[in-house]
Write a structure and sequence with these properties.
The complex is a heterodimer of chains A (about 450) and B (about 35).
Chain A: H1 3-26, H2 37-59, H3 64-67, H4 72-100, H5 115-135, H6 144-169, H7 176-205, E1 209-217, E2 221-228, E3 241-246, E4 255-259, E5 270-275, H8 279-283, E6 292-299, E7 312-318, H9 323-335, E8 341-347, H10 356-362, E9 368-374, E10 384-385, H11 390-396, E11 404-409, H12 412-424, E12 432-435
Parallel strand pairs in A: 7-8, 7-11, 8-9, 9-10, 11-12
Antiparallel strand pairs in A: 1-2, 1-6, 2-5, 3-4, 3-6
Chain B: H1 3-30
The chains are: A alpha/beta (about 450), B mainly alpha (about 35).
Chain lengths: ~450, ~35
């Protein structure tokens, strides 16, 4: 087994062990007396769900060592899916109780219910609100900043209320050490959130950057060039990204993930290329030279450097999805890379093709073929038009593509279409890597 | 969905299944079933 896979499997095993530990601890003698199979099953679900919620703070903490085997995008997706699993387990707790012990429905009456039951109900309502806001943030028109402010705070409240409910209800936690175990998990959650919101930003304060230049690119896109202030800069692999915040302090929650677009061989200055899409991205062009910036990174597994044995690379970009590939092309040119590269680059209009001149200029320094695909081509356009579909790929992919790596980055509908087309053309799934923008 | 996403989802599903089994074992054990 590859070392990376082994380390990845160990982290998964550790996750399962931590989540199951509180439940197993309850089975340490004196084993509590049962209160009926279904009642105990509902309590076990709630305990496991709560343990999972505590570990959610760890999967959100961007620990680079944990993220290394998978890429932080996978960790955040894992965070999302396990949150849903935990919510389902916790929701099952009252539903089972209401079914097998109808008297427990009376605990929903917040006026007469004991405080521990009120805390349990409040925790559940808050948890459902948290999940709803995260799953449908854009549909609810919740800004990223508002969501981030409330997400961490609500998560701590859910865990605190749930722990109060556990200790107040007293089920299976009569022994002090069992109570201490749960209290310890609560403390762990708070410490992890403290690391996310205070510890990590405090480390970033010691590594400030300054905006050197803001450059307009084609297609309502801006490149931000940053210079390190008193440190060596950022060591990254082409295709990786970082969380960027602009302004006086890294403690502000206005930090957003952006792909580095500059060459990995020039860590003394980094560039982020950002398209005007949301509130924050619209303000990027107004960043004055000299503005402080903080860079938390690098993160991500979307990089040709993780595939040293690849015989060639097919880069499939849609719109601003070109940014990781600019870093790849610039890095390859700086390295004198001789492996073949095919760039298929889909855009709406020719005038909006970000970096088209520079890509042309880089071509002689690489063994690269570039195919532009336009959705709204000019009248005299003789190149490819429409979508990157199966036929288009069949026309341009190399005949012998054994051992080639396919990297896809663009809007989700394009990525889905491209992935399906590649599978249709017999490209093994293990040779395809996609980069998603919608982390949250 | 690429291999990494499929693998991640498989891990989540396997972990959830493990947790549910552990919960059933717990409820059965404390009720001496």
């Amino acid at each position: 087994m590859e070392r990376r896979s082994l380390v990845g499997a160990l982290w998964v095993a550790l996750y399962a062990a931590v989540v199951l530990a509180p439940l197993l601890a309850l089975l340490v003698p004196p084993v509590p007396r049962g209160r009926g199979f279904w009642t105990d099953l509902s309590v076990a679900f709630a305990y496991s769900g709560l343990a999972m919620l505590v570990v959610q703070f760890a999967t959100a903490a961007r620990f680079r060592r944990v993220a290394a085997p998978y890429g932080i995008d996978i960790i955040l997706q894992f965070h999302r899916w396990t949150a849903l699993g935990a919510t389902a387990l916790i929701l099952a707790h009252p539903l089972i109780l209401f079914a097998v012990s109808p008297w427990t429905r009376g605990l929903l009456d917040v006026l007469s219910a004991p405080w521990s039951a009120r805390a349990g109900v409040a925790a559940l309502v808050l948890l459902l609100a948290l999940a709803t806001a995260s799953l449908w943030r854009t549909r609810l028109r919740l800004s990223y900043e508002a969501w981030r402010y409330t997400h961490g705070l609500a998560a701590v409240l859910v865990v605190a209320l749930a722990l109060y409910h556990v200790v107040g209800s007293g089920t299976y936690v009569h022994e002090p050490w069992k109570r201490t175990t749960w209290a310890g998990m609560g403390v762990a959650a708070v410490l992890l959130l403290g690391w996310i919101r205070i510890g990590r930003p405090a480390l970033l304060v010691r590594r400030p950057w300054r905006v050197e230049e803001v450059r307009a690119e084609r297609g309502r896109t801006w490149t931000l060039r940053l210079r390190p202030e008193g440190h060596a800069g950022l060591r990254f692999a082409p295709g990786q990204f970082a969380w960027l915040s602009l302004g006086r302090s890294p403690f502000a929650l206005r930090e957003h993930p952006f792909t580095v677009s500059s060459s990995a061989e020039r860590p003394d200055a980094v560039e982020f290329t950002i398209k005007e899409l949301g509130d924050f991205t619209r303000t990027v062009k107004d960043a004055a030279p000299g503005t402080f910036a903080y860079v938390d990174g690098p993160y991500g597994a979307f990089s040709p450097d993780r595939h040293r044995r690849a015989r060639g690379f097919v880069l499939l970009a849609g719109g601003v999805g070109i940014t990781p590939f600019m870093s790849v092309l610039r890095t390859f040119a700086d390295r004198g890379e001789r492996r073949p590269v095919l760039l298929l680059y889909a855009s709406n209009r020719w005038d909006d093709v970000t970096f088209r001149e520079e890509i042309e200029a880089l071509r002689p320094r690489l063994d690269a073929k570039v195919v532009h695909v336009l959705r709204e081509p000019p009248e005299d356009w003789r190149g490819e038009r429409g979508y990157v579909d199966r036929d288009l790929l069949a026309r341009h992919l190399p005949r012998d593509r054994t051992g080639w790596l396919f990297l896809v980055c663009g809007p989700p509908p394009m990525m889905e279409m491209v992935e399906k087309a590649l599978l249709d053309l017999g490209v093994p799934l293990r040779n395809v890597r996609v980069e998603r923008f919608d982390l949250v | 969905m690429t291999m990494r996403y499929l693998a991640m989802k498989a891990v989540v599903l396997a972990t959830m299944a493990l947790i549910v089994v552990a919960c059933v074992v717990f409820a059965a054990t404390v009720n001496r079933l």
